[in-house]
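dumping these here so i dont lose them again. two proteins, back to back, each one seq then structure tokens. dont judge the mess
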Amino acid sequence: MNGRDSEMVPLLHDGSALDGMTAAQWLRRARKYRRLTQVQLAKRSGVSKNHVSLLERGERALSTVDTVVRLADGLKIAREQVWLVALREFERKERAHSEK
């Protein structure tokens, strides 16, 4: 394990807007902060490399309890923080949908 394992992954500053990032962008940033490849995160979390890739490209939503728990554990991040990311992304999409 590297020295960053005990540090917090940079997360939301205000808790309300992902600092302008999508959940996909945030996940990629968190993975890179931990200096992990998608394959390494997949092995650490038990989430397939393909699923990690789809999440990072925004082609899948961070929406299941199992996926959030596995990714949080694989990234060594508090599960609640990953849920907050998923919730903010859901709210952002809902607002965009209702504005149409």
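---- next one ----
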Amino acid sequence: MRVFWTSLVAVVAGIACIGATEGAKIPVAPGMLTIAPIQVPIVDGGHVQGLLTVKLVLDSDGGDGAAVTAAEPRIRSALLSATGEFARLRASPYIPVDATRLSAEVSAAARRELPAVKRVLITEVSARPA
């Protein structure tokens, strides 16, 4: 049991470290904000099987862009958590990623943090073996 918890802590720490990569926040259009790439491990049976990489763009109502920018750290945290959960439950490095479902899950997570977010667009997604 101790090995299980140690492995779980290592995986969670890995998610936090991998997802903490910084990138430029490039405004694409009014009401849109590019999020730095998110990378999370694909874990199956307590072993890291691969890596899920996602590039996202927030699409919000054209209102206050400053509110979206101010909430970006909270939104990114929610996106990281939702992507990690998706990778744990529904991703494999050997089959195509269900981008429609991933988009729905990360959109719901972003809306919980900031209701002004209409949706989260996926501009690139890949799952590759470790």
